Amino acid sequence: MFILIDKPKGITSHDVIGKVRRVTGERCVGHAGTLDPNATGLLIVGVGRQSTRCLWEKFGKLTKTYLGEITLGEERTTDDSEGVVRPMEIGIKSKLVPTKKQILKVLKSFLGEQDQVPPNYSAVKIAGKKAYQIARKNLDFAIEPRKIKIFSIKLSDYQYPIVRIETNVSSGTYIRALARDIGRRLVCGAYLSNLRRTRIGTYRVDEATPIDKLELENMSFDKSKAEKLLISGINAYY
Fold first, then answer.
1. Would residue 109 count as lying in a domain?
2. How many independent structural domains does the chain possess?
3. Same domain, 112 and 29
4. Is 105 in the same domain as 210?
């Protein structure tokens, strides 16, 4: 079976898996599309061997929609609020205050297919090691850009230094990297300060179950109770 979970801030996607294992009593549990600890929102969880085997096939390449909060005026080592302040690149002016018109123009420039360099603190493999493992040792390395596509990006609100956006992107897109690149194109620097995933394909976070509610109900792994949490239109596996 598959369950839509609304992940809270402060826990990892792997923590969610652990909680679902305890609730269902099923050891074979996986998820489609990692969310960082500080990110919230929709996580699709597969429970049972058959479900976990077909997670990527069913959900891996679906588009994703996010609500992002971007803070202008500085960069962080992780490209989000978890990192320490990073020295600006040459030409970046932290005290520059972009106008709304400039922000709209820059956001529009990110539409379509493009190359994106993932954050240094990511799980991208470099010579067999995860990039964040190398970054934590303060070693120099480079990550090759990847092809991504941004289908839509709109400005929801702007009150300097906070820019709020809603964006629909291809699988594999890092919103942290998008925030970093927006800051560089605005010539003022930026990092991602908040993120919420609201949609994966046609599945919405308002259909999801908060993980604390799942634990509270202590769902047993049986069809009669599990059906309440299943994604509509997707077959359950038992």
1. yes
2. 2
3. no
4. no
Q: Cα dist. 95→31, 158, 187, 189 in Å?
A: 41, 16, 10, 9
- Rounded to two decimals, the pTM is 0.88
CATH (domain of 26): 3.30.2350.10
Going by C-alpha positions, the residue among 225, 180, 213 that lies closest to residue 19 is: 213
Tokens of residue 217, six digits: 């109900």
Catalytic residue among 6, 36, 79, 181: 36
pLDDT tens profile 168-213:
999 999 999 999 999 999 999 999 999 999 999 999 999 998 988 8
36 is catalytic: yes
**Strand intervals (E) in 75-130:** 75-76, 85-86, 112-116, 125-126, 129-130
Place of tokens 């070693």: 139
Structural domain for 39, as ranges = 2-62+202-229
**45 and 139 housed in the same domain:** no
CA-based end-to-end distance of the chain: 7
104-110 contacts, C-beta under 8 A, 24 or more apart? 104/155, 106/182, 106/185, 106/186, 107/153, 107/154, 107/155, 107/165, 107/182, 108/153, 109/185, 110/150, 110/153, 110/178, 110/181, 110/182, 110/185
